[in-house]
Design a protein that fits this description.
Layout: E1 2-3, H1 4-17, H2 23-35, H3 41-44, E2 49-50, H4 52-66, H5 71-75, E3 77-80, E4 83-86, H6 98-108, E5 116-119, H7 125-133, E6 139-143, H8 146-156, E7 162-166, E8 178-183, H9 216-225, E9 229-235, H10 241-250, E10 253-260, E11 266-273
Parallel strand pairs: 5-6, 5-8, 6-7, 8-9
Antiparallel strand pairs: 1-2, 3-4, 9-11, 10-11
Helix pairs in contact: 1-2, 1-4, 2-4
């Protein structure tokens, strides 16, 4: 038997020695999940005597974190928009900036009546969040990756107004026209991905790599969306706004709003089709 606080201190020191990002938060998440208590309780309740099975489980997760694996993959879930979602290495870990996409959609949804499509749905967090909030509307989520769609289906719960299907962008959509399309496509330039943090190297390359300039799929998608939606919401990368704006204008869309993230970079573009 080992005391939980003793093991926590050992784990924290170990992750610090390995130069892991946010070592204390990593330990808090790993320990609170294994012990089924909240993070604050790790400090406010008496130390627990751990069975060897529990201690081994915790230390195995600490070892994985020490190798750079993201905590979300280790635990199998992540928080998004205040809800817990299943994830796996087949999907991106939901980012805080993607909540700006949901906020943008939530501003439009009250005035919409037709179907909504989430392209590059991944774990399905955007589509599920919207479908839960608007049970009277029909939502669809599509992804090219079958393993990602398996995770999305797990997150779907019992929602009857949400449907997932496999597709490459808009090759074979279930509807001819959508009131709103949301596209959270890969937008990182290929050459910068190896330079990013060790944690990001665990995430699926197909969901990160936007080609030479980061706009390969966005450049392919926008012409496909022409005449097929009323509104379009795109999450974009740093410094891509002017190029994306021109692509939208060239294919019949007006840019009606741009949202900046916490670092004041243009992150979400909302377009309306002029046709």
């Amino acid at each position: 038997m080992i005391e939980s606080r003793q093991l926590f201190k050992k784990a924290l020191r170990y992750l610090e020695e390995k130069n892991i990002e946010a070592p204390r938060l990593s330990c808090e998440l790993i320990f609170s999940d294994a012990l089924q208590i909240d993070r604050l309780a790790l400090y406010t309740t008496p130390s627990l005597s751990l069975e060897s099975k529990t201690a081994d489980l915790i230390w195995g997760r600490v070892e994985r974190r020490a190798r750079g694996e993201p905590v979300a993959y280790i635990l199998g879930y992540s928080l998004f928009y205040g809800e817990k979602f299943y994830i796996s290495p087949a999907v991106l870990i939901p980012r805080p900036e993607t909540e700006f996409v949901v906020e943008s959609a939530m501003e439009l949804l009250p005035r919409l009546t037709g179907p909504i499509l989430d392209i590059g749905t991944g774990s399905g967090v955007i589509a599920v969040t919207m479908a839960q909030a608007y049970p009277n509307l029909s939502f669809y989520g599509t992804d090219i990756c079958s393993k990602a769609l398996q995770i999305a289906e797990k997150n779907k719960k019992k929602l009857k107004n949400l449907f997932f299907y496999q597709d490459d962008l808009l090759n074979k959509p279930p509807c001819d026209f959508f009131e709103l399309m949301i596209a959270n496509l890969p937008y990182l330039p290929s050459e910068i991905i190896p330079q990013l943090s060790p944690e990001i190297q665990f995430e699926p390359r197909i969901a990160l790599d936007g080609g030479e300039d980061g706009l390969k799929l966005i450049r392919k998608f926008i012409p496909q969306a022409k005449n097929r939606c009323r509104y379009l919401i795109l999450e974009i990368g740093d410094g891509q706004f002017l190029q994306v704006k021109q692509l939208l204008v060239d294919h019949g869309f007006s840019v009606i709003q741009v949202k900046k993230d916490l670092s004041q970079m243009e992150r979400v573009v909302i377009g309306k089709y002029r046709g």
